[in-house]
Amino acid sequence: MTKKERFAFVLKYFEEHAPNAETELIYDNPYQLLVAVILSAQCTDKRVNMTTPAIFEQYPDVYALSKATFDELFPLIKSISYPNNKTKHLIGMAQQVVEHFNGEIPATVPELITLPGVGRKTANVITSVVHHQPNMAVDTHVFRVSARIGLTTNAKTPLQTEQQLLQYIPRDKVHIAHHWIILHGRYICVARTPKCGECGLRPACKYYQTVIRKQQ
């Protein structure tokens, strides 16, 4: 199977079986999504969703968050991984959005990555989820699953993974393909023991064809 054929199979499968895939983070607007994504680094979406309601109640918008102090915000996110850094990042992000973007969450990757706590992955998430821009966010799931299936070849970094995926995924499908791959990695193609018996991608999966079938 060629790389082009593999991508075609995978995309068709997801279109049929997960046509409405979306982020599992709970949010109502771009501000809330940005806060949630910053908190989600090295942390589960489930834990973030348990944490954000109290934050959004006390800080309903970026203006309120920009006026928060470390000691006020920290107790609300202390159960999240790296709470010290994330507390500083959230306050700094809000202050810069107010100061440099008139309180509006930026809508482009170059603008977003100027904010504290916002790297390329986070910026890609925001622009793809909110604006359906053809930006592929690569987290650990996307990095692992893409390599395992054979969508990427010898990609050593998230950026290389992103670039290879964008070569074959149609622009209008990039925003949802991000969720397809993440959710597949979260529930089926898990890190230690992938659930190949439940996976509909077996005919196109390089790992299944070259490793699992030989073991059988």
TrEMBL record:
Q: Gene3D superfamilies, from UniProt?
A: Helix-hairpin-Helix base-excision DNA repair enzymes (C-terminal), Hypothetical protein, domain 2
Q: Name one GO molecular function term.
A: DNA binding
Q: Which domain of life is it from?
A: Bacteria
> Could you tell me what the cofactor note in this record states?
Binds 1 [4Fe-4S] cluster.
Any single GO BP term? base-excision repair, AP site formation
Sorted UniProt keywords: 4Fe-4S, DNA damage, DNA repair, DNA-binding, Endonuclease, Glycosidase, Hydrolase, Iron, Iron-sulfur, Lyase, Metal-binding, Nuclease
Which of the seven top EC classes does this enzyme belong to?
lyase
Q: Which reaction does it catalyse?
A: 2'-deoxyribonucleotide-(2'-deoxyribose 5'-phosphate)-2'-deoxyribonucleotide-DNA = a 3'-end 2'-deoxyribonucleotide-(2,3-dehydro-2,3-deoxyribose 5'-phosphate)-DNA + a 5'-end 5'-phospho-2'-deoxyribonucleoside-DNA + H(+)
The HhH-GPD domain covers: 39-187
What cofactors does this protein use?
A: [4Fe-4S] cluster
Q: What would be one Pfam family of this protein?
A: HhH-GPD
EC nos: 4.2.99.18
Which residues of the sequence carry a binding annotation for [4Fe-4S] cluster? 189, 196, 199, 205
NCBIfam families hit by this protein:
nth
The record's similarity note reads: Belongs to the Nth/MutY family.
* Its biological purpose: DNA repair enzyme that has both DNA N-glycosylase activity and AP-lyase activity. The DNA N-glycosylase activity releases various damaged pyrimidines from DNA by cleaving the N-glycosidic bond, leaving an AP (apurinic/apyrimidinic) site. The AP-lyase activity cleaves the phosphodiester bond 3' to the AP site by a beta-elimination, leaving a 3'-terminal unsaturated sugar and a product with a terminal 5'-phosphate.
Name recorded for this polypeptide = Endonuclease III
